[in-house]
Amino acid sequence: MIEESGVGMNSLAICEDDGYVSEKLEEMAKCYIKSKGLHTCIQTFATGKVLMREAKTFDVLLLDLKLPDINGVEVAKKFSGRTQIIFVTAYKDYALEAFEVGAVHYLLKPVAKEQLFLALDRAREQLAQTGHKKTLVIMKNGVLERILINDITYCEVYGHRLCIHTVDGCYEYLGTLDVLDGQLDGQFFRCHRSFLVNMAHTLTVDKGTAILDNGEKVLVSRRRQQEFMQALLRFLKDEVTKWER
Fold first, then answer.
1. Which H or E run contains 225?
2. pLDDT digits (tens, 9 = 90+) for 23-69
3. For residue 2, is pLDDT > 70?
4. Comparing C-alpha atoms, which of 225, 190, 193 is closest to residue 207?
5. DSSP alpha helices (H): ranges in 53-94?
6. Alpha-carbon distance 110 to 7, whole Å?
7. Strands (E), 69-142
8. How many whole angstroms separate alpha carbon 85 and alpha carbon 180?
9. Where are the beta strands (DSSP E) in 110-208?
10. Could you identify which of 86, 98, 135, 196 might form a hypothetical disulfide with 105, taking C-beta atoms 3.0 to 4.6 angstroms apart as the criterion?
11. Is 177 in contact with 157 (CB distance < 8 Å)?
């Protein structure tokens, strides 16, 4: 069963090693929050590794692409699917990498106030759409459990047991992939009789396997490879179109 719950922009993180840039971003973000009448908590981080040690996630993350201790793309992978990521960078040649980790926008330094406001508007639009955060409700050992749809990377079946793989771990319970396929939305593709894959977490297809953004590989049956590639291209095209609006 799918459930939805409303989510607002309650938290915003800034990860930027340049103190001056970080202060300017925080100043502009506060101006945006005040202009929209929001109640948003802002936290700033000077390094990616410190941010990654945070146990909680954030609604929106302003993230420098080139950090001194770790690549911003690696930081983004931890939050991808649960956080609206806006890359802030001096480099214009990494838009594809940013897109692959689900970034909602890509801003070049120096960032103008109007640009940041537009990016934050887009992030809030995404929070309103995906952020009515859809959850999959499953029954496991007599207990109801809720799983965020966007956190699911792929699903597999063996015997009569289903295993839902997520960014945080796996959930196993009795069920069929046919029933689960009917419950999930169009971002999932039945790439094999034993696997459902989330195209939002799929980077590419290589030699009959789907390569996911966490490095895992999911088998794609030979007869479904062409259809899967077409579905993935349509999905990616739709995502690019959202960026260009």
1. helix 225-244
2. 999 999 999 999 988 888 899 999 999 998 876 678 899 999 889 88
3. no
4. 225
5. 72-79
6. 30
7. 84-89, 105-108, 135-140
8. 29
9. 135-140, 143-148, 152-158, 161-166, 169-174, 188-192, 195-198, 202-206
10. 86
11. yes
Place of tokens 């640009």: 115
CA 23 to chain centre: 26
pLDDT tens per residue, range 57-102: 788 999 998 898 888 888 888 887 668 999 998 887 766 676 667 7
Torsion of Cα atoms, 120 then 127 then 242 then 151, to 10°: 130
Confirm if 1 and 51 have CB atoms less than 8 A apart: no
pLDDT of residue 240: 55
Q: Which two tokens stand for residue 103?
A: 């970034």
The Cα–Cα gap between 174 and 159 comes to 9
Q: Round the CA-based radius of gyration of the chain to a whole number and report it.
A: 19
Angle at 157 between CA 153 and CA 159, to 5 degrees: 160
pLDDT, tens digit, 9 for 90 and up, residues 118-166: 999 989 888 876 644 677 878 777 777 878 888 899 999 998 899 999 9
Instruction: Give the global pTM.
Output: 0.55
